[in-house]
Please model this.
Amino acid sequence: MPVKQTRKKIDFLSLLDFERAELDEILRQAEGLKRAWREGSGEVPLAGRVLGLVFHKPSLRTRLSFEVGMRQLGGSAVYITDQEIGFGKREAIKDIGAVMSRYLDAIMIRTFSQEHVVQLAGAARIPIINGLTDWVHPCQVLADLFTLRERGHDLDDLRIAYLGDGNNVVQSWIHAAIPYGFDLRVATPAGYEPDAEAVARVAAEGRGRVSLLRDPVEAVAGAQVIYTDTWTSMGQEAEAEKRGALFPPYQINSELLAGAAPGAHVMHCLPAHRGEEITDEVIDGPQSIVYDQAENRLHAQKGILLHCLA
Model:
């Protein structure tokens, strides 16, 4: 019996893997898919396809958006935890990728190690989609780009301030500054900066610009978008007390927001620790587009699924 394969294997491991034209096409697909969903379109381009969801880190938005997205596109999804797999322990990643390729049409994996995702992509004959690693979060940032376009922002003429930890989300934002021409200002405490190599790559070949700052007030000045994330990510719980003492100056509150451009949008990829990295009055205020971001994970990831599978 022949092994079922897509005509062309396309993985979605990081934004670095894609040219501007490809990312623009995914964003256009997301826009069309969202419009069709709102209009009640019955098109099901992924009918009969099955997506495997491998989770080593839990997530409300990632699981819901991929499961619902596959259903809206006519396909289905299977949820798999490490209890079933024993990823790289009970079974070699090479064997896992080969076997899952016989059952599934694509795999979304949310895990710790980027190297494990790369190894899985090398072993699998089907597309691998990176739902998050400790290094990058490309699905989130693609959805963020979609949200900003939807709000009328020009991605080549935009000032964005990111405050807090130089984590996987800001890493993908830095990667996005290669194909897109926005000005990204990243303000972090000393020792919590994002990857210097990625910043240098933007300076060498990117359309955009990335500045690393200490002062959150300087970062926010004149910015049209203010972005933050939790100060302590999954797997960093032992550092929570130390981080809690260093990060309060980077909290997005009304006073800090007042220094941004008039009507600046506030973004947070969630889950939020209200009263820590962001206050209730800001996240629930009129400038917040946090729930739009969350909703658009669904439609942006449908664009990714179509790009990889259709």
In short: The longest strand covers residues 50-55. The chain has two domains: 15-137+298-309, 152-288. The mean pLDDT is 94. The beta strands are 50-55, 76-81, 106-110, 128-132, 159-163, 183-187, 209-213, 225-228, 265-268.
